[in-house]
């Protein structure tokens, strides 16, 4: 009896640099190829799902970096490490807050759905339509224009793996830690409210949430915090 020999799956490794990946973000916020200026298409290699998915993930990671960089440089958003008091070398996650979050009487809080990195509303919109529309960039700009302070939560980054916070573990057997205070999306939002929202001077609080983020918002308002 003969057994078919299993072939090892090819592991695709890409640089974490949009330009090196062959893409750029144009003036309208659309993801385009550097050569030819074509809109991004998922199927770069025909019938090679593993390659296309790996490239997609790499592109989205670099765009996530770009979004965070834009939030800081364009709007002055401040990166705050959680739990309070940790350093970059400790187990931690992060959120972004506007410099006036402690003193502004109006606050807007953004809570994304599941599987999205900080500052992102929709990976699909990000890649297929507009980096600005798929991220929290436009929302942050509008909130600031309306006189609100801004708090961008990060409820999906609940694992600590290989010295960084991650959304999804590569394997179920991987050694990992949970992040104190952010062991789950609900706990993360509770920690943010207890340590950033409630101690602030905000009298009017607006929550903008998407998908499971809506559940987290309802959970915190109804069950865990007295605002």
UniProtKB/TrEMBL annotation:
<feature type="domain" description="Arb2">
    <location>
        <begin position="14"/>
        <end position="224"/>
    </location>
</feature>
<dbReference type="InterPro" id="IPR048263">
    <property type="entry name" value="Arb2"/>
</dbReference>
<dbReference type="InterPro" id="IPR053858">
    <property type="entry name" value="Arb2_dom"/>
</dbReference>
<dbReference type="Pfam" id="PF22749">
    <property type="entry name" value="Arb2"/>
</dbReference>
<dbReference type="GO" id="GO:0005634">
    <property type="term" value="C:nucleus"/>
</dbReference>
<protein>
    <recommendedName>
        <fullName>Arb2 domain-containing protein</fullName>
    </recommendedName>
</protein>
<dbReference type="GO" id="GO:0035197">
    <property type="term" value="F:siRNA binding"/>
</dbReference>
<dbReference type="GO" id="GO:0031048">
    <property type="term" value="P:regulatory ncRNA-mediated heterochromatin formation"/>
</dbReference>
């Amino acid at each position: 009896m003969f057994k078919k020999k299993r072939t090892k799956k090819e592991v695709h490794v890409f640089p974490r640099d949009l330009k090196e990946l062959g893409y750029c973000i144009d003036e309208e916020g659309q993801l385009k190829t550097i050569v030819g200026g074509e809109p991004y298409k998922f199927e770069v290699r025909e019938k090679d799902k593993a390659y296309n998915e790996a490239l997609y993930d790499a592109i989205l990671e670099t765009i996530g970096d770009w979004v965070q960089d834009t939030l800081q440089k364009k709007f002055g958003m401040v990166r705050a490490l959680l739990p309070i008091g940790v350093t970059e070398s400790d187990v931690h996650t992060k959120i972004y807050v506007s410099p006036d979050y402690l003193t502004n009487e109006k606050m807007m809080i953004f809570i994304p759905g599941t599987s999205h990195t900080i500052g992102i509303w929709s990976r699909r919109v990000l890649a297929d339509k507009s980096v600005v529309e798929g991220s929290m960039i436009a929302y942050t700009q509008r909130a600031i224009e309306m006189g609100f302070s801004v708090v961008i939560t990060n409820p999906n980054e609940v694992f600590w793996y290989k010295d960084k916070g991650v959304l999804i573990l590569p394997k179920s057997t991987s050694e990992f830690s949970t992040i104190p205070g952010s062991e789950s999306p609900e706990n993360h939002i509770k920690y943010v409210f207890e340590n950033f929202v409630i101690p602030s001077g905000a009298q009017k609080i607006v929550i903008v949430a998407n998908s499971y983020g809506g559940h987290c918002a309802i959970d915190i308002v109804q069950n865990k915090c007295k605002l």
